[in-house]
Design brief:
Blueprint lengths: L5 H22 L4 H28 L3 H30 L9 H6 L1 H13 L6 H25 L4 H5 L3 H27 L5 H11 L1
Helix pairs in contact: 2-3, 3-5, 5-8, 6-8, 8-9
Length: 208
């Protein structure tokens, strides 16, 4: 008999949980309270497991790979903190989460750490000109996508901010960071070595 690898064992454990969660969401099983707990606490546990897994992986690596896994693990832990704040307000206090709140202080670290991790993974370009070209390309594409997103969706966030510039900045930070992550990773895919491109392409697809 062939030994089952650790990734396959992990997939065999996680896949049924994801399938059950998807089925419950699609079919409306359980009460709204159960859905709230599953959404807040469940996401916190998922991000915590991902973060701890990445940090444990980092301990077995060295150099660039170790830094990459550490940054991605810290990004997952940042999202863990944000979801725990949501769980505290919605599940424990039974209140709506303030906007902005302490959760935003955690969530906004997620894209920054994630971008840094994937830049290290894809061999960050050397030389000032190469770095400048990478970020200019990313900002050009991100600016175009942001203009389209603003016209069709983001402009609706302005009334929600109620004239408060801080609230508006926090609301807009999420889509802006999301667009920037996709464009940076898409640019890195073309600059990465051929053997790394399929993995980066899968990451871009997943984040999109």
């Amino acid at each position: 008999m062939y030994a089952i690898s650790t990734p396959l064992r992990a997939l065999a454990l996680v896949a049924p949980i994801c399938a059950a969660y998807t089925a419950a969401s699609a079919l409306g099983w359980g009460s709204s309270r159960v859905a709230l707990i599953a959404g807040d606490v469940g996401l916190s546990l998922a991000y915590l497991a991902a973060g701890v897994s990445c940090l444990l992986r980092a301990r077995t690596r060295s150099g660039r790979a170790r830094l990459t896994w550490t940054l991605i693990g810290c990004a997952a832990l940042a999202s863990t903190g944000g979801n725990l704040v949501w769980a505290w307000y919605e599940v424990v206090l039974n209140r709506r989460v303030p906007d902005p709140s302490l959760a935003d202080a955690f969530f906004l670290w997620y894209p920054l750490l994630l971008i840094a991790g994937f830049l290290v993974l894809a061999r960050f370009p050397r030389g000032g000109v190469s770095v400048l070209c990478l970020f200019l390309d990313a900002w050009l594409v991100a600016g175009t996508l942001f203009s389209l997103a603003w016209s069709f969706a983001l402009i609706r966030l302005v009334p929600e901010a109620g004239g408060n510039l801080l609230d508006l900045a926090v609301l807009l930070a999420y889509p802006v960071m999301g667009i920037f992550i996709i464009t940076v990773l898409a640019g890195l895919q073309f600059r990465a070595p051929p053997q790394d491109r399929p993995a980066l392409g899968l990451v871009v697809l997943g984040l999109a």
